[in-house]
Amino acid sequence: MKVLFLSSSSSSIHNAYHQRLRMLAAGLASVGVHTDFVYFKDRFLSKPALIHPLSYFSIPKILHDCDIIHGGDDAGTYAGLFFKYLLSKPIVYDIHGDAFQDELLYLSAQPWNPRRMFHVVQAKILETVASRIANGYIVVSEFQRKHLLSRGIPSSRIELIRNGVDTRMFRPLSTNPNPNFTFCYAGAMQEYQDINILFKAFHKLELKNIRLKIIGFTNRDKRLKKRITSVLKERVEILNKLPQKELINHLASADVLIIPRRDHPCMRYGFPVKFAEFASMGKPIIVSNVDETSDLVHRYHCGFVYEASNCESLLAKLKQVVEVNRQSLLEMGKNARRLAIDEFQWSRIARKYTIFLEQVVQNYKNLL
């Protein structure tokens, strides 16, 4: 079987979106499935996403020889419009969350920005077309699966393919004892990550020998970095985006890892890659109750859940964590590692995805 991955982004970008596509492709390759990629932002017609289907006519014909197409998100699936109908190939729609609600969130910060308005309209068009042309759907969360079922999509056309992790790379490490109890967040600083709530809650945490480490700043985050540093001073350690090996070492040195996501519709159907990575490190995790990560934390007893976008709720949880004895935190960390092994290993995810792709191909052939 040959799978053609369609990415709406560039091959030079390294983020969670591309990590998912590349790890899925690597997993498929490990079980004998051949894969190819088309990156639409590497093509001549790179912007806007609405014109990406036209790139079909400049794609080397050797890439036409595939059995099925993997549309990476709304834009990637929409871009496969001509691939599907001119090549008569089935297409799988990889839904990462709710891109339309995501754009609405950004628009709320710049309500009269014409570019943002266009992106909202474009996102709705991409989502609508992608949903209509898809032969199969893969989702990252159970919430998203239930949402598709409520729209009348048969369960046989939907598969839960979570964001995974390389459990051999992200693993518990021995570190030197730290006199300070350290909470750590690592990731991007987008609006929906709710970093403001995190540093405000920590500012109110009037306890000694407690530190906050925030990793992932870029040049675009200079104002946020300055504000956090000016408020928390020596109680916070600020680090820019790090190479993976350095990141893993910093995660290993922390006591508890945090994912502060805000309460917004765009958050409900997603599943952060960092949750799988944090769990694989064997650390207790604090999450908000906005997505499925909170259900998994409760089910595996591997951390703590606070009310999303509620500073006082997060503050209370931080205080609770500090009061928990070390042995209980170690047990939570072991449970988190077990969760990663059970749910997030790429090798298991790839085998599951291969079976689903074969079913979609067979069902499509039966309709011809």
Layout of helices and strands:
Blueprint: E1 2-7, H1 16-30, E2 34-39, E3 68-72, H2 73-79, H3 81-87, E4 91-95, H4 99-109, H5 114-133, E5 136-139, H6 142-150, E6 158-160, E7 181-186, H7 195-203, E8 210-217, H8 222-232, E9 236-240, H9 244-253, E10 256-259, H10 265-268, H11 273-280, E11 285-288, H12 293-300, E12 303-306, H13 311-323, H14 326-343, H15 346-367
Parallel strand pairs: 1-2, 1-3, 3-4, 4-5, 5-6, 7-8, 7-10, 8-9, 10-11, 11-12
Helix pairs in contact: 1-15, 2-5, 4-5, 7-13, 11-14
What keywords describe this structure?
single chain, 368 residues, alpha/beta, Rossmann fold, 6-stranded parallel sheet, 15 helices, globular
Give a short overview.
By secondary structure, this protein is α/β, with parallel strands linked by helices. The protein folds into 2 domains: 2-164 and 345-363, 3-Layer(aba) Sandwich (Rossmann fold); 181-343, Glycogen Phosphorylase B (Rossmann fold), CATH 3.40.50.2000.
